[in-house]
Amino acid sequence: MTTAEAYAEFGSREARGVSPTYERLSYAVAHDEALLALLDTLPPGKRQPNLLFGVVRWLGGPVEDPAAFHEYTAANWPTIEAQMRVRATQTNESGRCAVLLPVLAALPQPLALLEVGASAGLCLYPDRYAYRYGEHQVGSGEPVLECAAVGLVPPARIPQVVWRAGLDLNPLDVTDPDGVSWLDALIWPEHEHRRARLRAATAVAAADPPLLVRGDLVDDLPALAARAPADATLVVFHTSVLYQVPPPRREAFVRLVRELPGHWVANEAPEVLRYDGLPDPPNDASHNVLALDGTPVAWTRGHGQEMTWFG
């Protein structure tokens, strides 16, 4: 897929109906030969729309008007390029806990959670948040995570978490203003509800910081998993992470995680982790597949806002 095609697809499948600003901007970049030429000087994994738009927002640049975005990006490309090379799309959306919760609540309790690609670790607190599936509410506290769920009997309980740890190549510290400002920049422009959710979730994490380890998802996973308490169910999980991992390394991770004790929960795009016999997704929007121990159970949207259960 060319860079232009990737931006057009982002606009039509991910941003449409979710962020008019990013839908408009994606189509503009897809037809902007000057910006495409600049993007193509980056490694393929560093050209994605979320990263470019997030860096420009983090630097204080304009994203609402495509013409102003073009002018700013072209004029400030050396600074933007340097940030794109060292940063990653570490969207740490606590709302994703809403699609993980039905699986986590059904496992033998208590749980030892280990998130791969944990960013600041905000998804390591599914027991501290509240959830609303239509009229059904589970748990108490802030933030309240809303999820439109089809085909799902909502969980009756919150999981019991006795240990939480994250592995990331560049873990972010929720007590560091720079780290939090980067997470804020990765939230799409119109999503004030997600900004409020970020503030509430970072307060939860800052009050009881998780164990975050800088490391590789293959080389360093076994040692971190071995630190989990033996009397808890180990759950290794990840959401929208493996697309950033080269396919051979991705395959090595899958082989490794299948050999670990406990359970494996994956929430990734179907082209990233492939499954046989998937039902059709509910619509043309971009979806992840939620899977437990390699068995797919639901289609989910990227920010945890919707899920369609089929498992």
Walk me through the structure.
By secondary structure, the chain is α/β, with parallel strands linked by helices. The protein folds into two domains: 3-86, no CATH class; 94-309, Rossmann fold, CATH 3.40.50. The chain has eleven helices and twelve strands. The protein has a nine-stranded mixed β-sheet. It has a three-stranded mixed β-sheet with strand order 3-2-4, with no helix packed on it. Strand 11 and strand 12 (306-309) form a beta hairpin. Helix 1 packs antiparallel against helix 2 (20-30) and helix 4 packs across helix 8. The longest helix is centred in the middle third of the chain and has 16 residues, at 192-207. The protein starts with a helix and ends with a strand. The model has no long low-confidence stretch (mean pLDDT 94).
